[in-house]
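From the shared-data thread, chain only:
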Amino acid sequence: MGKYITNKIIFMTGATSGLGKISALKSAADGATVIVLARNKDKGLKLTEEYKLNFPAGQGKIELIEGNLSSFQSIVKACKEVTSKYPIIDMVVNNAGIMNFDPLQSKDGIEETFQVNLLAPILICNLLYDQLKKSKGAKIIFTSSALHQGDINFDNLEFKDNYRQFRQLSSV
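Structure, as tokens:
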């Protein structure tokens, strides 16, 4: 990432574990301000502690914003907090994802996998769009796994009939 990341403002989901965590730590070390949307505050605090411990000479910072992708209200609240602090956002990284073994409903009454993996990132991009427009070279990144393949059943997007976790993931 290097020089491109220096002094950039990055909003990231899924940054408290896995590749998202590595990306957040490295981006902050290279000079970015990484705003991490964290559902689990304890995991978010561990991320900031790990950054301070492992990158004491890091040029950037990691800021936590609490938010839950299975609640549109929570997403709106988190994005309002971000837009009140940051007039410009250079990058949005939608990295969070879930795979439920059984059909679960979000707080909004939508099948949770569908909401978290698809609808929430779209809402985030919409809510942060004005800040992105102000950046030169803004980027929006969606990560996915190899499970995201197959046909979309527009008549049954939430797989209310015949739910199977891998089928649900392949349509998102």
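Residues 110 and 154 are 15 Å apart (CA to CA).
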